[in-house]
Structure formats: structure tokens, C-alpha cells
Amino acid sequence: MRVWYLASLLLLAGPAALFAQSGSGEGRYGTRTFASETTELPDGRTLTTNHFHQVTFADDPSHVMNDLIGDCVGQFLASPDGNPLGANGICFNKDIDGDGVSWWWRQEASGTADCPHICGVFGFLDGSGKFDGITGEGTWRVTAPFDLGGVGAWQISYSIP
């Protein structure tokens, strides 16, 4: 009887319910800036627009965020002495099969005990192929900043219809 009830629910929900995927995970990423433009503002702050390559790896090799590569653009606002004040941007990534996924990101903290470099949040915009309809949000943190990029860690919860 339970099997019949479950099968009836799946039929009412439609075929998409059979393939819906959700989960969470964590991993690492690396960035490398390939173009940059800095504007000094009248009050001494600087606004830098960076275009950078990104690679993303998940701790679990079967995770949807494992082995992604792509490009990002971001704006970084810094104080006159170079301390980060805010940053935001967007990334466009794909996997080995060519399925694409994009996400926004935003800085939430910097220079604190919990976040010595820069840290923030990100969320999926949408995707194609296996990423079609993806939603979710997570956190990121730069763990090693370099002049032309950096490496960091991320965590995410997501759902794909």
C-alpha cells in the first residue's frame, strides 16, 4: 500500500520530481585576474574593476560544483589606504560537459578576526543543461590573497528542479 501511495504522489508531482536534486557542500576556488582598471575617486578611495578566471573544486568529487571553470567580473571599492570597503560581481562557469551556471557574489566582511581578508555571500542566477533552474545561496572567504587573484573556500546549499 505504501509503495502505491508513493508512486501516486510521484505521478501527480510529474516527471521533474523524479529528477529534482538538492544538497549542500563545500570546497575551494582559485582566481587569476587578466584585466583590471582602477579609478581614483575624489575622496581618495579607489574603485577597481577586475576581470578574472576562476576554477572551482568541491570536497566531494560528485558534487554539482566540482570541476567548474569560467570567468568573472567584479568591482572592488578600497579606502585611501587600500583597505577593502566593498565588492560585488558575477561569475559565468561551466563544467567539462559544457553545462553552464552563473552566480552573483558580494563582500560582507573584511579585516576581522573571523574574516582576515575578504568574505561574503553568493547565489545562483541560473544555468543551462544540468544546472537549468538551479537556486541556492552560500558563503565564500578568501584564504590566500595574491596580487593577481587568490584562493579561497566556499559553502553552498542548492536545489535543481
Explain what you see.
- The chain has 2 helices and 8 strands.
- 10% of the residues lie in helices and 62% in strands.
- The chain has a single domain, classed as Beta Barrel (AOC barrel-like), CATH 2.40.350.
- Residues 2-18 have low confidence and may be disordered.
- By secondary structure, it is mainly β.
- Strands 1-2-3-4-5-6-7-8 form an 8-stranded antiparallel β-barrel.
Q: Keywords, please?
A:
AOC barrel-like, mainly beta, 161 residues
Question: What Rg, in angstroms, do the CA atoms define?
Answer: 19 Å
CATH topology: AOC barrel-like
Helix content: under 10%
Q: Provide mean pLDDT, rounded.
A: 90
Pick out the low-confidence regions: 2-18
Query: Mind telling me which CATH architecture this is?
Result: Beta Barrel
Number of helices: 2
CATH homology group:
SO1590-like
Number of strands: 8
Describe the main β-sheet briefly.
Answer: 8 strands, antiparallel, barrel
CATH class: Mainly Beta
Task: Give the count of structural domains.
Answer: 1
As laid out across the biggest beta sheet, the strand order is 1-2-3-4-5-6-7-8
Note the run of SSEs as H and E: HHEEEEEEEE
Structural class by sheet pairing and helices: mainly beta
Percent of residues in beta strands?
A: over 45%
Sum up the overall morphology in one term: elongated
Roughly how many Å apart are the termini? 28 Å
What's this model, at a glance?
With 161 residues, the chain is mostly beta strands. The protein has two helices and eight strands, in the order ααββββββββ.
